Amino acid sequence: MFLVDDEPAVVQTLGAILGRKGYNIRQFTAPLEALAAADEVEPALLFTDVVMPQLNGLQLADKILEKRPDCKILLISGNASFIAEYAAEMRFQLLEKPAAVADILSTVSALIGPPS
Question: Which of 31, 100, 107, 109 has its CA 20 to 30 A from that of 21?
Answer without folding.
Answer: 31
